UniProtKB/TrEMBL annotation:
The gene is iolE. It comes from Jeotgalibacillus marinus. It catalyses: scyllo-inosose = 3D-3,5/4-trihydroxycyclohexane-1,2-dione + H2O. It comes from the Bacteria. The keyword Manganese applies. Pathway: Polyol metabolism; myo-inositol degradation into acetyl-CoA; acetyl-CoA from myo-inositol: step 2/7. Keywords: Cobalt, Lyase, Manganese. This is Inosose dehydratase. Residues 38-293 form the Xylose isomerase-like TIM barrel domain. It holds the Pfam family AP_endonuc_2. PANTHER family: HYDROXYPYRUVATE ISOMERASE, INOSOSE DEHYDRATASE. HAMAP family: IolE.
Length: 298
């Protein structure tokens, strides 16, 4: 399905240790995490809060296990803080990823975000940007895209539950309002399905803008519980709303088929934040790797 060297497979450390809720996987070491990633058959990783900030130390630890850095999350605050604050933090983040050999920078706007609020109902209190906020976001992303291009890199925008860019319409507004040369899209199956969007329609509509992919599955019964009980995003995660591909309700076969036919090049990143005390991260990494091999040939 995919040509050789067309796609590389990574897995995010958030299944081992959760950055937003450090109590989930607090006992798991950085070394255990990356060793199990490699043992499960992955060749890349995104960056977690336990990863060394010294690029030489990180490079050595990863190279011993045959791993690369695919990207790392960056929180922008373009709608809620002066642009200069986001720009300065972004340049530091960009330079770190550049040194690690990454080609894309994951950006998600966190102005007014509720994703990190433990008690705020996810669907009832979702932020909606004003016209002025949309202007700040679109203009700010263009500026960040220029900064990324200085290092030959791209920004890939991460639509995300509990933020102002979550729904199909919001993704469309962001894509239609930005220059494809400056702003690309991170396609995340789990966040789309959790939000109630048509994940294949979004994929096919914005295929030419997609330069990074997160493979995340969703448990239908937990999604319904989040709606019925007005739970927060973090409560949903602790309750097990996300899981690895092949363990939830999403059929990834048409995703792989469409991306293959479009000659997508880049990373697929398995991402499934769960409580590692309940869902053993190594076991689920192996499960994801087997499913991806069976359904995509990778």
């Amino acid at each position: 399905m995919f040509k050789e060297n067309q796609v590389k497979l990574a897995i995010a450390p958030i299944g081992w240790t959760n950055d937003d809720m450090p109590e989930l996987g607090g006992e798991v070491t950085f070394e255990q995490c990356i060793s199990e990633m490699a043992l499960a058959g992955f060749t890349g990783s995104e960056v977690g809060n336990k990863y060394p900030s010294d690029t030489n130390v990180l490079k050595k630890a990863l190279s011993l296990r045959g791993l690369e850095i695919a990207s790392a999350w960056f929180s922008s605050f373009l709608t809620s803080k002066p642009y200069e604050e986001t720009a300065e933090a972004f340049k530091e983040h960009r330079d770190f990823l550049y040194e690690m050999g990454a080609k894309v920078i994951v950006v998600s706007e966190q102005g007014n975000s509720i994703q990190g609020q433990m008690e705020t109902p996810l669907f009832d209190k979702k932020p909606v940007f004003t016209e002025d906020e949309w202007t700040l976001l679109l203009e700010g992303l263009h500026h960040l895209g220029v900064l990324a291009a200085e290092k030959g890199m791209k920004i890939v925008y991460h639509h995300h539950m509990g933020t102002g860019v979550q729904t199909t319409d919001e993704i469309a507004r962001l894509m239609n309002g930005t220059d494809p040369e400056k702003v690309s899209l991170l396609y995340d199956t789990g966040h789309l399905v959790f939000s109630g969007e048509d994940y294949l329609a979004v994929l096919n509509t914005f295929m030419d803008r997609i330069h990074h992919v997160h493979l995340k599955d969703v448990r239908a019964e937990i999604t319904q519980k989040v709606c019925d009980e007005k739970l927060s995003f973090l409560q949903a995660v602790k309750g097990g709303v996300f899981t690895v591909p092949g363990d939830g309700l999403i059929d990834f076969r048409p995703v792989f088929k469409a991306l293959s036919e479009a000659r997508y090049k880049g990373w697929f990143v398995v991402e499934a934040e769960q409580d590692p005390a309940i869902s053993n991260p190594f076991e689920y990494a192996v499960k994801a790797r087997h499913y991806i091999r069976e359904t995509s040939g990778l």
